[in-house]
Every structure is written in C-alpha cells, then in structure tokens.
Amino acid sequence: MATALTRKDFVSDQEVRWCPGCGDYAILAQVQKTMPEFGIEPHKVVFISGIGCSSRFPYYMNTYGFHTIHGRAPAIATGLKVTRPDLDVWVVTGDGDGLSIGGNHLIHVLRRNVDLKILLFNNRIYGLTKGQYSPTSEVGKITKSTPAGSVDFPFNPITVALGAHATFVARSVDVEQKHLGEMLKRAHEHRGASFLEILQNCNIFNDGAFNDLSDKGIKADHQLVLEHGKPLIFGKNRDKGIRMVGMRPEVVTLGQNGVTEKDLVVHDETNLALAFMLGNFEAPMPTPVGVFYAVSRPTYDNAMNQQLEEAKAKQGPGDLAKLLQKGDTWSVN
Amino acid sequence: MQLTGMQFTAESALAGNDIATLPDFPAEIRAPAGTLAGVSGFQLNFSSSEIFTAGDEPNVLVAMNPAALKANLEDVPPNGLIIVDREAFTDANLKRAGYTSNPLSDHSLDKYQVIEVDVTKLTTLALHGLGLNNRAVFRCRNMFVLGMLSWLYQRPTQSTIQYLEGRFKKTPDVLEANLRAFKSGYNYGETTEMFASSYEVPAAKIKPGLYRNITGNAATALGFVAAAVKSGRPLFLGSYPITPASDVLHELSALKNFPVYTFQAEDEIAGVASAVGAAFGGAIAITTTSGPGMNLKEEAIGLAVKVELPPVITDVQRAGPSTGMPTKPEQADLLMAMYGRHGESPIPIIAAATPADCFECAYEAVRIAVKYMTPVVLMTDGQLANGAEPWLLPDADKLPEIKVEFRTDPNGFMPYSRDEKTLARPWAIPGTPGLEHRLGGITGENLTGNISYSPANHELMIRIRARKVAGIAQEIPPTEVFGDPNGGDLVVLGWGSTFGPIREAVKQAREKGRKVSHIHLRYLNPLPRDLADQLRKFKQVMVAEMNMGQLLKMIRADYLIDAVGFNKIQGRPFKVSELVTRIDRALEG
Ligand code: SF4
Fold first, then answer.
1. Is pTM beyond 0.90 here?
2. Range of lowest pLDDT (B22-36, B290-304, B317-331, B422-436)
3. Which ipTM score applies to this complex?
4. Ranges of each domain in chain B
5. Is residue B207 within 8 angstroms of chain A, CB to CB?
6. Is-same-fold flag (B211-398; B488-587)?
7. Would you call B485 helix, strand, or coil by DSSP?
8. Regarding the domain with residue range B211-398, which homologous superfamily does it belong to in the CATH classification?
9. A59 strand-pairing partners
C-alpha cells in the first residue's frame, strides 16, 4: 500500500487561505510531501488543531481533521488517541495557541507522553488577531498592543517542552524543506509525544523574524544543525564550533588557538542537560535546529490500554447484569 | 460519622425499609473536630411506608460533641430523642462550640428526651486488653454508637459485621476493636435501662423485585456503563476531580474491564475536551463536573454543539456562585446549562429526581446523545450524588435499545447530511476509508461542512440544529400528573432532587383535602410537548426549585403562564413542612 500513496492523496479540495507568502505554505507542502513516506493511508490519519493561522492546517489535509477551540487541541487529541490507538494523530498549534491559552494542555500532554505528533508553528506574533505580541515575542517588541515595546519576557518553546519532560524535542525552519522533512520523519518515528517547533515566517505581521536562519547568505553562520554523535560545528566554512569552558559553552574557531574537532561538544540526543543548554542558546550563540532530545518512555495511551487489557484478563469482560447486582441486595416479594 | 451513617443506611435497606439519606458533611475535610465548621453529620429517614425525603426533622440526634448538638438542634422536634457523648461536653469543647453554659445541665434541652452516654469511656472499657492507644480507641466510638442505634431501631447487624470484616481484613486488631465496639454498643442498648423501648420499624410495602441500596453518583456511573455496554462501544470519561462529582470518577475507574477509560485530566477544560475527542473517535464519551467546572467547559460544549458530536456532560450541581458551598446542593445551574454558551447553542438537558433515578437519566442522556448526535447535559446535585435509596434493579437485558451505527458507505457521504426523522448527522469516525472529512468550529456550509461565511447559510445551520434539539420532544413520554390529571386548584412543578419533598408535601396537602397536584420534569430541554396544556388545566402553577426561579423563567417565557415561584437557596433541600405551608398559603390567599 505504501508505494501506492502519493502527495496527492493528502491534498484536500479546500482552497488554502493563508496570506500569500506565509511560511505556513511551505510547511503544508512539506507535510503533504512527507506523509506518503509513512505508508499510512489517509483515513488512518487525523490532524487536530486549535485556533490561529496555523490551526487552519487540517482543512488542507485530505485526512480526518478537527479544527477545534483555542488551545485545547492536545486535550481533544488525547481523548481520541487513548480510545483509538490505531490512529496516527497529529496536533497542529502555534505559539499563541500552544504556549499561551493552551500552555497547560501542552505541558501535560508532553509529560504524559501521549503518542501524538505535535507541530508548533512559532512565528512569534499573533497573526489571526492581526498583530499583537505573543508569548514568544522578544522583550521590547513593538506591536499593536505594545506600542511602547513589550515588557513581557518570552517563553522558549524548546526549553518549555524539555521542562515538561517531553520525550522528543526538535526544531526546524519553514523554508528548510529538506531538514523539515527529516524532522517530520523523526517526529513520526518516535513513540510518544513528539514536539517539533517549526520557526515560521509571518510576512504580514512579523516579517523576517527568522531571516538569519533562512537567508541563504547568512544562515550558515547562525544555524547550528544538531546531529546525534557528531561534534557541534557550524558556519559557512564549517569552521566554527561549540566548546565547553567548565560548565559554559563558547563559540570557537577551528584551527585558531590550536582548537581541533576533538575539543568540541559532541551532540547526544539522550542528554537532557545538553538539550537544555542548547535550547537556551541565543545570540551571539547560533540557533540550534534538529533533534535536541529523544528518549524512550512508556506512552500514556499504551499504558492505559494495557491496564484495560489486564483488567479484562483478570476479571473477565465486563458483565453488566452482575455489575448491577453487586453488593448487598435483597428481595422484596 | 459518614461511615456510621452509610452503614446504618445499609442495615435499614436490608431490613426492608424504604430509605432516603442526606449526608451533610463539612467542606473543610480536616476542620477541627468540635468546632461548628467541623460538624460532620448524616441524616437518615427510614420508614415502613414509602418515603420521599431524608426527613425534615430527625427523631433522633446523635451528637458526639457540643458543636454537633449546636449545629443540628434546631432540626430536632420537641420531644425528639437526643443522644450525647457526655464526656465530650468539656469546658473546652463547650467554649469551642460557642456555648456559655453546659446545655446538658442548664435546662435548655428540657423539651427533648436527652440520653447521656459515656461513649468514650464505654468504648475504652470495651476495648480494654487489646493494647490499642487512645487514638485508636477514640476512632472506634462511632462503631459503639452504630451498635447502640442498631439496637434501638432493631437493625440487622450482619451486614455491618461483614463490612467491617472486609474493610479491616488486613488489620485483625483493628477489626477486633471495631467489632467489639459495635457489639458492645448493641449490647449496651439492650441491657441499659436508658432506652424505654426499642423501636421496631416493619418492612415497607414497596414494589417487589431485587433491590440494592445506591447513591446518586454510583447510579450515574452505572447508567453510563450500562449505556456503553448496550451500545457496544467503550466508555470514556474525561474528568477533573471536583466536589461533589468525584465519586463518579472513582466508581468508573474501577470498571476498566468493561471497558471503561477514565482520564483524570489536567483541568476541567481538558476533561470535556478529551471527551469531545473520544466522541469523535466513536466512544461513548462523558465528562463529569460541578458548577465551577461547568463554567469552564462551556466553550468545548459549544464546539460539540456545532460539530454535532455526542459527549454527555454531567453537572452535579452545588451551591454557588463561585466556590459557594461545595458540599451543599442547589439547582442554580439550569440556565447556565440552557444558555451558558455564546451564540445560539441549544442542548438537550435531563435531570434526575432521586438517587436511583440517576441510573435511568444517565442512560437516557447517552441514548439521546448518540441518536441525535448532540451533546447532552445531565443534571444531578450534591444531595442526589451522596444521598442513597433502595434501587429496584433493572433487568440488564430489558434496557432500552441504544443503536450506534457508524457511517461506512463513502457513496454520497456528506458530514452534515441528515437523518430525516431525527435530523442527526452521520457519525463517521476516523479510520473509515473514504470518509475523510474535516470538522471545525467555524460555520460550515450545509451538508458539506466546508467553511462558509454565507449569511443565509449561517442562519440555516442555526435553525437546523435548533430544530433537531426541539425535535427530541417527539419521544418524550406524556407528562405524568400526580394528583388530578384533569386539573385543579394548584400544581407544583419541580425538577431534580426536589422530587421527594414536593411529592411528600403534595401528598400531605391532598390528605387534608387540597386540590393540589405535582408534576416533576425529567426533560428540561426540550420540555415535554404536552406540558403547557397540562399546566393550563390548573388555576395556579407554582414552580418549586432550589434557586431564584430558573425553571420559572423558562415556563413563563415559553408559555406565557403566570406561574409563581417557591424558592429556597440555603444549600439544603426543601422541608416538607415549608412546602405544605406554602401550598396552604397559595390556596387560602
Ligand atoms: S497573518 Fe501571518 S501567520 Fe497568519 S496567514 Fe498571514 S502571514 Fe501567515
């Protein structure tokens, strides 16, 4: 069956309504392109979203879809996945939907490790409500609701997810098609809650927020591509790296002051402390993309279904007549 | 004290008495014993004739300390029996309860029969030699009292003994202590001359069949399980713990083999949201809560209304607003259930009248939800939830049919096509080949559900959903009138847990020759089709409810009937006597 699936099988008949030039188009294209590779037929796939520009996503996928209410997609998806473990359930959310109004559901679904693939489109702005700052907007940001600059310290989605004990945490960029495809595959492969932050350009209200990561000329100097087991190297000439000085990371140049590859930190996806450190990188450090953290832990949906199976094995299938008559009964003649 | 009450209830039920209980326990679970806030009581009415309430006035009050006496004294009728633990009436305890003098010696209790028992001392003596510390002995005092009461009312003791044996299986010394205390209490009652005679309450004449004693929350849980079993689907409960609804979660958590999924969510919203998700997947999905949680769930309920999925939302109402009195019943969430969501968002509402009725209502809520593809609100309250009554066990095979048919045919499939009779849309669950579709909260085009901002379509969809819910009235059974079906001077209209006191009051008024009748509603939305006509047969319509007049507003608005209200918002059920007085006034005025 897998070979028979094509991109077209995942494209719905609905007109896509994002603003022209929006980063969401690139993400949609990549998801539609990657889905056939999973070999799962569209009717077994469900996309669930909340509210916001990103949350229009399910309408454009020719799978089952549910565009729900603001912030609650993880909870709705949990109810579905737990009772229907046979389905491949994806959650599409944004920085406002997932980290502001729905922050509570996001952290709980991550700690529970429900087997959901969560894509958080982070454009660091509220698009649908026309341009207010979001919980990932930087301090000082001038927006419609912060004419004097935001005084609101932002969340970092990666460290929020790590702090919530997510078992899979990764980041990619909307226009980095190849990398994004790889991250989608890794996220899908993972059993448990996969958290993938996708940096997404909102060209209407926050254009160029991630230019340093997407502009061909400069991105190599700003992007640190994480690869398990490989040293942390970046830069146009691949001559920059990350070295530890005691407990602190620093950027070094290979070949300068006798620095060699051996001095660099080697990425380890199973090292939570390292993941946190990388998650907290901000300028002048490069922005890491790739898999920060990936470990295996029992999934909530699986554990719950197992309990149900065990109960059935131990007590036999539920017997309604017996249940009704449980406890002290008496007859009235 | 709760334990003692429950056990005595079980004994009474086994003795064939009709029972009704009203547990009255403090919100502050660890409120200091001996203070008024910490009084934990349990009111039980048992009788050899059919009874409908936990009783206005207890004939016997057992007060384990001065605070308990003070909190309950006003409910005891003159000449009522008061049993007190004499030793607990120390100066310190009296002061904590706010007494300036000892009621046991200041003649303030002269109009009652007061029996002073040294419960603590007697329990200590009974347990002598078991090597228990004072604290452990103190804990057995309730068992001593239970034994005493069991003798006083000639309750069978076997079930209590069995219960204790089960509960303390692992701690033989505690078991021995409880059994000894219980038996000593019983024997003390028998041998002491304090009680003039013991009361024998003969078995009540109730419908033949197999009975068990059940609380409203347990009945609610069983109703949902039964509905799931009958429909051949798994049950999913998404819930966040809240008083007084949590017992439904507890009950269902123990029934995994049915199968029942229970998801203790991170908050109220996730509770209902997960149920919406489970309903999308084809489960019998429910959520349980009380008023404060109901507020939080409304947005997700609105989503279920719009996408026409069938989760059932149970609101075990409690006194509000805000935290209010969490352990006390009230009926003030009706209009929230009706109108608490933004936009035109009609939803069927069903309310249980008695603890056992919660079973049928939960079952019926699911039946309607899946038949019409709509969320349904089931309303109970704290009094039903924790109150108990004998339940005539239904025959599992004879429960009404619940048919769940998922759409499988892709031919001509449209997510919002409709069944001609019910107007239900097809339940098309993920995993079905060829039925891939998108649901969403945004207004959708008729039939396809595709996003649509067409003004006429928006109105059309609102009207279709409203018609669908209104259409449920076609299968609501004709209104039952207790009293004069052809009309009379007054009809008392009620819903929910006020059933008992209203029925009893109307009965008493009728015995006095009053032409008064009682109509009790199970279906609050839509209302029964014949209700308006029935009400119009009476010269006066009085709506009795534990709120400021919410059903009253609906009746007046829908029917232009000049009904009046009888309202009580004290976190306590109506007293039969209050209702009788009000009925008298209406008919004499
Ligand atoms: S507002 Fe921004 S995020 Fe939303 S669709 Fe337009 S460009 Fe995309």
1. no
2. B22-36
3. 0.97
4. 2-191, 211-398, 488-587
5. yes
6. yes
7. coil
8. Thiamin diphosphate (ThDP)-binding fold, Pyr/PP domains (3.40.50.970)
9. none
